[in-house]
């Protein structure tokens, strides 16, 4: 009887000791941008663009998919396009930029708008 009681006590102590280590796992440190959603990025880019008085945001579209921001619509000149890209790159979580913006021509001829660079800009 004493031997059985000894083994039972040993088993209980072992189970209790092991149960204390169940929650002791190593915590991985994730980068903040891994938690950023596409809709959050889109909202932040739009907000940052609206704060800039040099950019006419009325004709700029911002879409985000898998942290890649697509900028579309029209801008008045190359400087506005460059500034728009720069602002979008500065938002936390943005992986790259796809520029689909067009530059408005001086004359109001719809066919004379030229497409801007149409390149993908990686964030560095």
UniProtKB/TrEMBL annotation:
InterPro entries in the record: BON_dom, Lipoprotein_DolP, Transpt-assoc_nodulatn_dom_bac
Region (Disordered): 103-124
Basic and acidic residues compositional bias, start-end: 104-124
Pfam families: BON
Protein name: Transport-associated protein
Chain ranges of the BON domain: 37-105
């Amino acid at each position: 009887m004493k031997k059985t009681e000894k083994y039972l006590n040993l088993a209980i102590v072992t189970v209790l000791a092991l149960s204390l280590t169940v929650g002791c796992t190593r915590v991985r440190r994730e980068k903040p941008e891994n938690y950023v959603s596409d809709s959050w990025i889109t909202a932040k880019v739009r907000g940052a663009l609206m704060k800039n008085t040099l950019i006419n945001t009325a004709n700029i579209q911002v879409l985000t998919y898998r942290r890649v921001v697509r900028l579309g619509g029209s801008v008045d000149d190359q400087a506005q396009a460059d500034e728009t890209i720069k602002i979008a790159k500065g938002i936390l979580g943005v992986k790259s930029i796809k520029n689909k913006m067009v530059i408005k021509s001086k004359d109001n001829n719809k066919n004379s708008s030229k497409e801007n660079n149409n390149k993908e800009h990686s964030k560095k």
